Amino acid sequence: MDDIESFYALEIQRDAVELERAGRSIIYLCVGEPDFAAPPAVMDAADAAVRRGDTHYTVALGIAPLREAISGHYKRHYGLEIPPARIAVTSGASGALLIAFGTLVNPGDEWLMPDPTYPCNRRFVSLYGGTTRLIHCGPEENYQLTPELVEQHWGPNTRGVMLATPANPTGTAVAPAVLRAIHEVVRAKGGTLLVDEIYHGLTYERNANGVFANEKSALELGDDLIVVNSFSKYFNMTGWRLGWMVVPESHMKPVEKLAQNLYICPPTVSQYAALACFEPATLAIYEERRAEFARRRDFLIPALREIGFIIPNTPEGAFYVYADISNFGSDSFFFCRDMLHQAGVAITPGRDFGDRDAEKYVRFTYTVPIEQLREVVERLRKFLGTRNK
Ligand SMILES: Cc1ncc(COP(=O)(O)O)c(C=O)c1O
Q1: Domain 40-279, what fold?
Q2: How far apart are CA 49 and CA 230, in angstroms?
Q3: From ligand 1's centre to the CA of 300, what distance in Å?
Q4: Model confidence over 145-196: pLDDT tens digits?
Q5: What's the 72 CA to ligand 1 centre distance in angstroms?
Q6: Distance from residue 385's CA to the centre of ligand 1 (Å)
Q7: Residues within a 6 A CB radius of ligand 1
Q8: Model's pTM, two decimal places?
Q9: CB-based contacts of 23, cutoff 8 Å, min separation 6
Q10: pLDDT < 50 positions in the chain
Q11: Relative to the CA of 94, which ligand 1 atom is closest?
């Protein structure tokens, strides 16, 4: 337990809540979840499941119609044939990661991950007695691993590589050709590639017709890798605790055994509700919300750059901006604390996400309406003006 650190974001959030209770106006840009609730059809499906009494345990891998619906999503969205037999429904991506690392990590094993990264990933590895080697990935690498870095850092105990695309805290994505090359290195070493696609659907590059380009799933690279995903982000269902993983068919038995033992089954009502996510009318709502996130990104990033934050690469997805505060000459933890107290804006310091350069970075989330983002920029302009005097 001594190796498991607390989330500094939560310390900032705790202070923010206290200030708000004392009457201050606080804008929260520190929480990694969409501000939208699940669409009405999802709520109705949950309501109907409760009223039908579909509230008992399900099988550990999730109800068949949902595994089929997820398989259909891979077909429609990515043109990929992923049989339901390779899909396990889980308790969020967190449940998927708990199981994935449980089936993969032996004591003494090492896993490679980028620095910065989503903090919980390392905790899962250490829970099973493994270690994580964090590899510094700066703006030159789009804050993501490259095949060269993986090759260079692979050691005698390395068993695999984990990355997320788009990623938390940076919102940056790995280009499909780079991911392919990373997969080739990992495969040649006899290791496992684990890709977190939780922010898929929330990417904002458009094609020539102004339509959002579909992402490519790592699953097109072969059937020997593991992909985790979730209903939390694109599907706006964080508190419903539902996700999934796709694994090689031969790996399903260990996954099933662990799911049975660790949490019996994913939440039943959420599983029935999630069936409504894939209806065309619901998908249309999600696409409108994606367009709203794109508008917020396109407003916030230039505005932050204009007041002195350094954002070398425009993040392709998620709802995060990882900004370099070198121009303001302060450790990011203290910068976030001062910004909260003086400007009433809560953001997350980089030290939650890695070791190298963490004190230079802060993470903004754009999970509030544009009017509030405008207010944030005005408050920051004043805050930075007073600091520079
Ligand atoms: C990259 C990444 N992976 C996994 C998770 C866990 O998500 P959940 O368990 O809600 O699906 C998060 C949550 O913020 C995340 O940012």
Answers
A1: Aspartate Aminotransferase; domain 2 (3.40.640)
A2: 20
A3: 23
A4: 999 999 999 999 999 999 999 999 999 999 999 999 999 999 999 999 999 9
A5: 23
A6: 35
A7: 32, 92-94, 118, 164, 168, 196, 198, 230, 232, 238, 243
A8: 0.96
A9: none
A10: none
A11: 9
